[in-house]
Amino acid sequence: MPILTKILEERESKYNGHLVVFKSLGFGTYIQASGLTQSGGIVNDIWRETIKKLKKSKTLKLENVLILGLGGGTVASIIKKNWSKVKITGIDIDPIMIELGKKYLELSPDDIEIKVGDALKELKRMTKNYNLVIVDLYNGDKFPEQFENEEFLKIVKSHLTDGGMVVFNRLYFGDKRPQTVKFGNKLKDFFPRVEWFYPEANLMFLCSV
């Protein structure tokens, strides 16, 4: 009998805890942080569904995309496959996650401008605006509180072009649900249109200006 899943590498991260790179027949190569898949595997399916929905938008025109929480580069890869000429900037605080993405998930600086750093601090330095901002800022299974506060939401909104959109990815299972719903309701105070979209065990908030 062949081994269905094997471990390719294990690392310890200051930000994401225990990182494991798996390869399986069913899910391909994927990276787990503290037992939760963060890049590759089922995350591909979650983002494919979400990007498919974004493509149906008649107002969203993609030229520049900002990804906060680049991880191993899953969503960046899917965006590139759908909009080949789009320019993508990805920020992630965890250099080990970036390293593993480059090694195992074809994350390439040739396709994406990669910045290692804190998303809020980087945003404050940036002057460029984007058609689409992806907010996927988990450390393991934890969504840092600083990325739920008013300051962060205002800064993210300020980096959108006219007709732009922010997509917030939140976990939506078990004890994660109440906080995710609370956050979704809070977004209504900052964005004129907030759509709730449910792929797999996640909840995506599609926020338009």
Account of the protein in words:
With 209 residues, the chain is of the alpha/beta class. It is built from 6 helices and 11 strands. The chain has helices spanning 42-55, 74-82, 95-104, 119-125, 150-158, 177-187; strands at residues 5-13, 17-24, 28-33, 36-40, 64-68, 87-92, 112-116, 130-135, 160-171, 193-197, 202-208. Helix 1 (42-55) packs parallel to helix 2 (74-82). The termini are far apart.
The name of the CATH superfamily reads Vaccinia Virus protein VP39
| Biggest sheet character | 7 strands, mixed
Q: Under the CATH scheme, which architecture would be assigned? A: 3-Layer(aba) Sandwich
Helix percentage range: 25-40%
Write the layout of secondary structure elements.
Elements: E1 5-13, E2 17-24, E3 28-33, E4 36-40, H1 42-55, E5 64-68, H2 74-82, E6 87-92, H3 95-104, E7 112-116, H4 119-125, E8 130-135, H5 150-158, E9 160-171, H6 177-187, E10 193-197, E11 202-208
Parallel strand pairs: 5-6, 5-8, 6-7, 8-9
Antiparallel strand pairs: 1-2, 2-3, 3-4, 9-11, 10-11
Helix pairs in contact: 1-2
